[in-house]
Amino acid sequence: MKKFILNFGFLGLLLWQNAFAQEKRTMTLEQCIAYAYQNTALMQKSMLDEQIAQAQNQEYLGIGLPQINGSAQMLYNFELRPAFLPAFFLAQSSGTPPDPDAEFVAVRGIFAPRYQGDVGITISQLIFNGSYFVGLQAAKKNKELTKQNSQANKVTTAENVSKAYYSLLVANERAKLIDANIARLDSLIKDVKALNKQGLAEKIEVSRLEVTANNLRAEKMKVERLIELSKELLKFQMGMPVQEEFEVAGSIRDYQLEQIPDGEVPNEYRNRIEYQILETAITLNKLNLKNKQMGAYPSLVAIGQMGYATGARYFSNVGDFSNRWLGYGTVGLQLNVPLFSGMQRKYQIQQSRLELLKLEQDKQNLQKTIDFQTRQAQITLKNALTTLDAQKRNMELAKEVLRVSQVKYKQGVGSSVEIINAETAYKEAETNYFTALYDALIAKVDLDKAIGKLGK
């Protein structure tokens, strides 16, 4: 009996854990955007780009640190290189008077040993190089540019997720209203059937209302498929696996759209990440110009070398470290002075200056583009809010007309045709309202993007 109770309790625990694991989480718009920042391929690549830029910055910094290299070499001269000596050197050794015009004679084994060894290290330290110090500034700016590109990708991600999120909320609200319409029609059909049994209503009136209800149920199925498609789109924009489940928090009614004041929306160009990126590009181009100019300056490097070398006729003597390995070392300075580059540097500087002028023109054009986009988004949102307000009033009026038609029918002074027409008008008004609501929300996203508020 105890074993049965334990097994039953264990089974209950497993079922509870399984049900808990399958519970869908609820996510707000902010949570969806935060999830997308961590999981979309675009943002993951941006984070990798930032890490690459950081590594490149450290790599360039290493150029100014000491460069130390070690080497070891062992040579076996299986055929010794000949040395060419004047013949009179050999004549002197034999007692013959020297002849300055005598030919050279090849002699082997005098200056080159059979076995040679060398172990040493070389050290160099950059003391001055104008291009290097300019490059350090450029490396920092490049790192900043990478972060700005990541921010631009954040703006794109926030825009895509927001639009998909609003689309899903609108579809959910539309499904709720269709359910309410179906419930209202079912109640009316029930009342009309009762009247039909009493002989106060014709059978055809019941059929007309049932056709309308069936059409609404078919519309509900379409909306449910639209909800599923909208959710899959939102998952895609968030970088969420298809098999994961979640629900969006709240309702579309939670998002209040206020009328924007007349006049131009205050706009600061630097709020737009595209403008910041262009400013950084201009700074990088100025540094590139400075780097070309620094190419005409001298560079100075400190160098040093030390080690041990040996030479022997027999390999067994190479291992005599105490007697046959002798040390050497040198230190010094190396000055490199560019004298003439064949006019290359002059025209490289000219190209950099022209590129800088192009970027300045791009900056002016971007300012005009931002002004236009902001004004366009402002007007579009105003029009969308005006349309939304009108469609909301139309929907309320259509709902009131439908209510009055139902009351008249129950009082015997109306007809089912009037109810069906009112129901159709109300359905059309709902569709127009949700279309206007979605357009207004999208227009608000576009305005936030135009003034640089999106993605912050």
From TrEMBL:
Gene3D superfamilies the UniProt entry points to: Outer membrane efflux proteins (OEP)
GO cellular component entries: cell outer membrane; efflux pump complex
Domain of life: Bacteria
InterPro entries the UniProt entry points to: OMP_efflux, TolC-like
Coiled-coil stretches noted in the UniProt entry, renumbered to this chain: 206-233, 349-401
Signal peptide: 1-21
Keyword Membrane recorded: yes
Record's subcellular location: Cell outer membrane
Molecular function per GO: efflux transmembrane transporter activity; porin activity
Swiss-Prot/TrEMBL keywords: Cell outer membrane, Coiled coil, Membrane, Signal, Transmembrane, Transmembrane beta strand, Transport
Family: Belongs to the outer membrane factor (OMF) (TC 1.B.17) family.
Name of the protein this chain belongs to: Outer membrane efflux protein
Organism: Raineya orbicola
